[in-house]
Amino acid sequence: MHRPCSPGTVLPASPRRRRSPEDTVFRIGSVTKTMTAVAIMQLRDRGLIDLDGPANTYLRSYRLGPERGDFRPATVRHLLTHTTGIREVRRPSGLLRLRDLGETVPLGMPVPTPAEYYQGHLPIHADPGARFMYTNHGFVTLGQIVADMTGLPLDR
Predict the structure, then answer these.
(1) Which parts of the chain are beta strand (E)?
(2) pTM for the full model?
(3) Nearby residues of 83 by Cβ (< 8 Å), 6 or more positions away
């Protein structure tokens, strides 16, 4: 049985829980959003990206794809401000797994790259800039932009 806990709560290790190995790869989450945003701003300061330019201009590994043809292009600024129109739960079955708080990979399975996970396409469900929709997928995409523009993975 799972017990809810407050944000920031540290759960003690238990004999039933296995600890994550030191080389475990974790997806970008709230802790790394700040560092991802700093890396994006450094690229902007170096003149390599324009915050108001289409994100697909800088994204090489997969594409952001609007569901409708009348949507404006999603920009880097939209990704930074959670106004891109990307849903947090990508598939209806994700609503049944709210305890996981996002997408998961079974223990022991390799973590796919964003390009593999999104299969080359991350859908945009609302007109970018029209409304706030909190999503980790936007910051995964920002991390991919950093990797695509520098030739280095975000953790380097």
Answers:
(1) 63-66, 121-124
(2) 0.76
(3) 128, 129, 130, 131, 132, 133
